[in-house]
Amino acid sequence: xxxxxxPLAVDQARDIAAxxxxxxxxxxxxxxxxxxxxxxxxxxFSQSGRVVSEIKRNDIREIVQGSYRVVYKxxxxxxxxxxxxxxxxxxxxxxxxx
Length: 98
Hints:
The structure is a single chain. The chain is an alpha+beta fold. About 35% of the residues lie in helices and about 30% in strands. The protein is globular and about 40 Å long. The mean pLDDT is about 90.
């Protein structure tokens, strides 16, 4: 199983890390490491995340890392990381575009 990050997810993760860095650089580093560790687990356990409640599709899942949710899509041979956003923000189906 291969993991691919969408350009949007990369930009969002970068922006969040930069924001966290303003207050505490070491926390930003831990957050980024936590995201990558969690995503790496999907290689063996792709369905370990929960189904996104707003979307209700078995192939669209998420994990929560701190105050942020990482949304991904499971495909036959790869996992697409679609979004990284605050967990308080509701998601709409049209946001899920790989």
